[in-house]
Amino acid sequence: MPTTIVENNQPNRKDLIQALSIYAQPDYRKALVQISNTFIPYVGLWALMIYTVVQGLSIWITLLISIAAAAFLVRLFVLFHDCCHGAFFPWRLGNRLFGYIAGVLTFTPYEDWQRNHVIHHANSGDLDNRGIGDVWTLTVAEYLEASRPKRFAYRVFRNPLVLFSITPLILFVIVHRFPSSGAKKRENYSVMLTNVAIAALILVMSLTIGFQNYLLMQFPIILLAASVGTWLFYVQHQYEDVYWSRNDGWDLTRSGLEGSSYYQLPVVLQWIVGNIGLHHIHHVRANIPNYNLQRCFNEIPVLQSVTPLTLRKSFQSLWLNLWDEEAQKLVSFKSIKAMPRGKS
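^ that's the sequence the OP posted. Answer follows.
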């Protein structure tokens, strides 16, 4: 490991990237193992749900199986996410093919989501470049100066019931059916191909087991998986001492190490979410496959110096809604209750 990886208590980006380079090596064997322990069980659980419906078994049995299926769909999305970074397979074609397949199952167009996610990585923690691939976040000053309708809309959006149930469903079922702003030819095609594949899948399921039965199985899976996925994305960048900065002082390495959480989860949950809790590593070097993240964390001391966000503490983030530029932390609506608002 380079001796200059840390200088004056700040990581040297060039040497840190070099130290991480050995972990940014996709391994097709590990990728195939993950497909085997994720994609195959997910399809198997679908088959089991179809059996329960065809046999007329209790709806509660089907719903119980859908919870397990949702967990595997979350993990499948992490594999999809790796493909978008070119990090799952060693080959571009392999990442693209599996990315499209996983994108159909997760209701997410591969090329279009990939483009937005790259922008997210380039601007994470930059207050002057918010709005693409992130969670709507206002500063205290922006909120106080906003019109009443905007403040109302922001509070509704930030309500946990809306943010982690209604919003994910709208995002994955409706928003992803249309190209994002700025999408080009390739991204447009990816949306169309994904939509056609989803429509074909729905048609086949409707003709074989009935549309109502399909909804009975698909709706709880997509709702649960999308809600969990949104929570993971939210908590990775929304916690009290997260890093945000104006563009002129923004630092890419700090945005990774301090602006992305090390979400410390129990072993089983960490497996389900494909090590995505080691998000501070991912934002320093995005092309490290999920299956190499834990080894990278174990072997690079500077990555271990990050204060972990525990499962219990993470739920406090639900009530942190605004970025206080003076205090350099996220604060709650309650903390600014006495401050004057705009009158418009």
